[in-house]
Amino acid sequence: MRPRQAGESSAEHLHNTLLYAAVQAVAGPPNAVRAIRFPPGTRVRSVTVDGSTAAVDLSKEVEQQAGGTFGENGEFKALVYTVTGIRGINALQITVDGARLQSLPGGHLELDEPLHRSDW
Amino acid sequence: MTNRFIARTGSPGAPIVLALLAASLAIPGLADSSISAIYQRQTIRFTHLSSASGSVAIGVTDPGFQTLLHATGALLTWKPGERYVLITTSAPVVVSFAIGDRRYDVGPISLQASFAPYARGNEVYLPFDEVLRALDLALRRDGGVAILQPQLAALDLRQDGNRMTLLAHGAAPLHPRTVRESATAITYAFDGVGTTLGGSRQINAGGVRTVQITNSGTVRDPTTLVTVELAPGAVAEAPREEERDVALTFDGVPPAAPTIAEESPTPEPAGAGATSAATVNGPALVTGIAVQPSADGVTVAIAITGDTGYEWHRLRDPDNRFWVDIKNAQLQGPPIEESASAPLISVRARQDDPSTVRIALSLQGPKSVAVTPSATGLGILVGGEDVGDAPRSGSGSVGNVVSEGQQNAALVTPAPLDESGGSENSGESTWKFGPHSNYVPTNPRLIVLDPGHGGSDRGTIHGGVAEADLTLDMAKRLRDILTARGWQVKMTRDTDVDVYAADDTAKQELQARVDLANKAGARLFVSIHANAFINSGPYGTTCYISKADDVAFARTVAAHLASDGTKDDGIVKSHLYVTLHTRMPAVLIETAFLSNPGDYALLTSASWRQKVAEEIADGIAQYSREYPVPNQPAQ
To answer: Which residue of B has its CA nearest to A27?
Structure first.
């Protein structure tokens, strides 16, 4: 990610940093690395910042999770730890296709309120 | 010890082909031109094309472009009004473009595009050639027809003792065929992929003498041939497919003397796997090294053409070695190894991996070292005096690459979890909870058991076995044991049903289970599950918790489950709905992984499920003895 650009406000810079961080976290490491991953095709649709809470909108594919508690827990922990690593962000609100959801179909995590590092 | 080499030469053919295509499309004033191109026998029509600085620009909402991204397994993230366009390739590598900025990033590598992406109306236009290269595709011409040709994009070499592995990476799943084999050479054909890696490379390690890459076939039906010349006695193993890569492994006979590669000055930095992303840029060239005595020591001048970043490291005294890795760079000519005058001992240069040139210095002591970019490359000044606590690493750039990009990237480095399920941040020492509750069960003899899933939600399914059925079976066994021991037991379900209603939402379902326990004023809540993962690797028993009140209970149960026959993965804190919202001490037990063969055998064994039920019951008994309910007799 490039450093702050001339003419880029601090709010824009935070937004751009968050967008990049979220996309990287959802993409995960290269395939050859054995890692817990979001379901194939899961994409970051957009990000927004409200105060110190980031909102990351994921595509519908995230609902096709077959990873059980193990995968689901790992995916979201990695995403929360990534975005809350950005200065000024301490919570993450998940939405799917623009809508809040309480938890994933057949899922285990509560997602309707912002997630924090202290949840893990 | 692993070393990485290079088996590629630049890509002299690509710019010409792309330039031809660009010329044919670069009609002045072109706004709504279109072209069709064939990708994997599918004709894709690109309609949102434009031209910029003589190159082709593609609109991100172009339906043909979307089709191509989908077909290659890539994902695009962009919203109107946003400055960044991010493409996640199937590798996956994140490619980031910024409107108005010629620089773009392919993973950690910062590159220059032929023009800056620009917005027009609700559309953003990207440099098409750069996007295609990031997708490991090449735009070729077959007569008047444009072909998007998948590329064998990289061939990395990995040495492990006497074994050498060639890792082939490309745009399409690679399926090598052995087309010629003799005692001295073996040729593999990769059908369907072309390459710009053509050429021959001396390896002379791990049983491999040379690797030669040639193009064969036609533009439409390309084949890339990889011929490996073997050292006497070396043996080729059958090709192995590793995810999207193909591994070709050779076993050599032990060498009589160490090779240059094995004199590598250092272990590779952690995670320093060569990224194929490095190949998308024209690499910088390290054209020469000059060692000159100066007033206060020795200057090592490294001549570099092109823009790139570098990173240096040094080891602590008494191991006085220093090296600088020049990224995305090729060493012109053979490796260099020269002795040098004090305070140096020697200077070496070699291609350390396909995209990195390493310059290594041996020093006569803990000498001061200063690295400075210069007009012609990089200068390293080694001082005559010893220094105490010298910095041990640093980085920078030569040419026009902005090094802050890399530093900034570190700020947002994702935190992926490995498949052990943990990370350096997890573990009991870092758990944070709210205060313990003052919860007093209105029914201290009641345990609520929650068999996970059920009804319309089967949970995870493997080999025809559904999690929902296993959890119900285990909960019933546990119920019978607890009842026999004098407990009252309520089940959130005791048949194969949804607890709230068929086809309800996940939250309605989970809330219904929580409500049942909270309203009943139960002493403890136990949710029983079977785990799963997308591959068969992970196995073991895990107890999940969320609240301060859960810790002691989960610890006791986990201690009893530790001997259940599969791995003990202990206790994991998470934000799980049922443990979070139940008011009493609760634990969600992921008994074992249906996706792992060993665990699957356990889960499908009735006697194992009985054993697990008994261990949970023993945990409940011990906990209730050690943590009696206030003002209530212990159970």
So the answer is: B92
